[in-house]
Model the fold of this input.
Amino acid sequence: MSANYLVAQDLHKSFNEHKAVNGVSFTIRKREIFGLLGPNGAGKTTTIRMLSTVLEPDQGDVIIGGYSIKREAEEVRNLIGVCPQELALYVELGALDNLLFFGRMAGMSSQEAREQALAHLKLVGLEERAKGRIDKFSGGMKRRVNLAVALMGHPELLFLDEPTVGIDPQSRNNIYETIEGLRDKGMTILYTTHYMEEADRLCDRVAIMDGGQIIAMDTPHELKAQIGSPDRVTLEDVFLKQTGRSLRD
Amino acid sequence: MVQPRLVWFIALKDLKLFTRDRMALFFFVLFPFMFVILFNFLLSDAFVDEDNRLVFHLITLEEETETAVSHQIIAALVTPDESSLRPGEPLVIEVDDYDELRRQVEEKELGGFLAFPEDFTESLYAGGGADIEVVADPEAVYHRAALHGLAQGISSWIGAEYAVRGAIIELAGEQAQAILQSLEGQVITGEPLIGYTSDNTAGDIVAEQPTNYVIPGYLVMFVFFAAALSAEAIVRERQNHTLERMLASSVRRSTLIGGIFTGTAAKGLVQIIIFWTVGILVFNIDLGVAPAAVIILSFLMVIVSAAFGVMLATLVKTDRSAGSLATLSALIMAPLGGCWWPLFIAPQWLQSLAKITPHGWANTGFNKLMLFGADFADVGPELLALVVFTIVFASIAVWRFRTAAS
Done:
């Protein structure tokens, strides 16, 4: 069993009177793909923002690679890559320009940034469109560039916040293969998604969040086994059983 | 705390985005010149013909004697041959009926005139100072300002003449002084010799070239407008999480603010370089006796505008609000601050109100330097005011800056 690479302890975060995250604790082992599932407003994105040091928790702490996000944020930032839910890109610039810029922001030299940028664009199947403007790309291509940017700096821990929203099956499949390839190379990944079948396919363990709290956490197989035969029950069944069927929007 | 290399990269990225946006380039670089050309055309020689040529009426109430200085001044200024005047050059004529001139001004048939009192030479030689009377129609703002300028010019000219004579007397000794005193009858002092009193005046001097105040006015307006609209881009970055993405990749908050500020300032610098270059080469503008002061004032104006733009971004939640606030601030502050017309022709209350805007201070500084022959020291208050505005705007920006949309 691998050692824990991330340890989140009793995280709390409120916005005005609303408790977005309310006592979340979990661990992620090295080389693990850990899924964070939950309906809209469950607190997944707030949790990722705290883990990635851009939002300070009201209470609790997270240790990543031995460093505290509260006391050693800069060291933590050197270990992580973030692929946000939004397309956090400069759409007026080319794909390569975006990767080079964020590479420089991560402290890379010009040459190092270029080498990595070209390698990552190749990884996501966009080496032919390296100089194309992002605003001319399809939704799937933009998502892949978003992922490629997160890989700049070869992070040890990657946060992927719904990286496959609104894209075609081909692009989604490309992203799955990329993520599996990264895990095989030793990367640790925290993955949030609304698509249960992709969590079932990719994640070693999943945590289901609702109302700012983790209400279930185990391997997909074990979670399914809790409500029936794992061969006949889907992760979506588990999810709906845990979070209910009422609309959240 | 700030990471200078990263600040530079962020600023470069912003400049790159600016150059990729053709509409922004047109609006903030080419479009202002369309304004300048239009207003320069409206205010320049193209509209000056025989009928609306500026005419100065001069009158002296002194008796004509060999030593009457006012007669000598008028003789030197009067236009000898009207047909030799170029378009836009003023016509200077001497008249001899004071009451008739005054009546014409009161009945608004004449913009105004300059009058030398009957004891002008005597007062001058007595060393106590002499006054030139400026009589003007309060509504004839250009004429009034021009008469003020002429009176100031005469005052400076005579003052300099007598200062030189004073120096020669000092150097040549008592004998020369005795000769000059016997010639002119009185002791020469170092005090200002000529002042002027004005009747219904408010203004200083009219510009010879409209571009000398049209270009700085529109430069101030469009630099501030571009900086204010940068707020829209900053808010958009906040909304699409690129700021957070930078923050999560080893960029400190102070670096982020520094980079955004530098990028906004860099765009302003591009604007002023283009404006002054085109202004000098194409419109033949005159930077005055202290071009370095014009450059420093321009630089400070860019700094304060960048701080203003970043501050605006921290006051709104959406990019649409930022765009609206930027446009609104430009449309209010530009006319209030003298970007659309020179402040020195504006009523006193508007001149006072202009001081609440950085535009007003910047424009006053440019007018002083480019129209009124001011030196570096003369624009000290304007430079200081812009520094204070920068500190205030930047403090608010740093205090309220956030990277997330929520």
DSSP finds nine helices and ten strands in chain A. Chain A touches chain B at residues 15, 49, 52-55, 74, 77-78, 80-82, 84, 86-90, 92-93, 97, 101-102, 104-107, 149, 152-153 (CB under 8 Å). The longest helix of chain A spans residues 169-184. Chain A has a mean pLDDT of 92.
